[in-house]
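Record type: ASSEMBLY
Status: queued
Input:
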Amino acid sequence: MTAGRDSEEAAAGESGQILELPAASRATDIALDELELVYAFIYARVGNRPDAEDLTQQVAMKAIPRLRQGAPASAIRGYLFATARSVLGGFWSVRLGLSEAELREDLMLVTPAAEPPSEEGTETVQRILGQLSDNYRRVLELRFLHGYSLKEVAAEMKSTVGAVKVMQLRALRAAAKVRLEE
Amino acid sequence: MNGKPENRLEKIVADLLRGRRLKLRGGDAEEKEAITAAARLAGTSQGPQRMHPAFRKRLAQALEQQPSEGLVTRRMALVAGLGLAAGAATGGIIGRATEAKLVARAGGEPITPTSGRWVDVAALADLQEGHGKQVVAGSVGAFVFRRGDSVTAVSSICSHLPCELWWDGHNGNLACPCHPAAFTPDGRPVDAYSLPALNTVHVRVTSEGRVEVLGTE
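Status: finished
Output:
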């Protein structure tokens, strides 16, 4: 049985010259382009490259083998994002015990139709910060948008490091409660 | 959260701002909302991120080495002479070059509860031909379909993500709300994924014209 298959395979290889076709790399490139969107989606939620890479790889390994050849791009993207939501849900559930209901807003985003505009992320941050009180907004702006250290924030706000730490905690609690209308 | 929460959160924020992995402890769950907000701010403040070229390369290698569970493996395609499809399948996905020969995955086993009992779910006369009706028989959820005087039934749970299907009357199939998958009334997958068929459900029509499904107490 094995021998028969091998001879058939060899014959196919000789006659069809199909072992060195570029289709594999093309297919991989298509997959990687879709996975770029998944990576951006995940990165925007975990906020760091190592975790975003691990989770994107998990999505790829789970979803890609199940995709049927000839599937339309919209279906491929939809399936990748459904898998990404599931993987992200598992990530937060294991680390912080977050339930699906708590993650609802974070994960229930529509599948992007194309690459997100470059200003989309910063615009979201501004919209969140815009709903906070002045002090809370300032401390988060300085830390997350301008990359200030705690000491630099304290100097800028004429406060102490201890007070800024408490303010940062409260500001993040408040930011978590902000609900953005689409 | 161990120690003062503001100190612990500052450690997490500082790690995020240095691009480090989230290292969380059991007690951190008390500040879960603040931590996810910090991750989100760190993740969006620089705009949409692209994969690092080194990671993209590693991912490409992993994809090309991954055996496909899909419909056409490289070996099958070689034997069948589907050369271009084989190349695409090796990459894992999306062969556009040629139409693939479909090979259905397993599935479709009947649900036979250990202590099952027949549960009355509807009158045959109430079922509309060609229209799926969702029913519940104890712990067994199903869609029943009338074909003349007989009735068939399949599970109402998707064979991939465990989500409850809904009847899409416009397309005449059972659709999954969790991802773009759909199934015919006899449980076969109809769209882009090589999913297993839905489990079938035992169903019968009594002499009084009642439809019963084999479910649980």
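Annotation: Chain B has a mean pLDDT of 77.
Annotation: The helical segments of chain B are 5-17, 32-44, 53-65, 74-80, 83-91.
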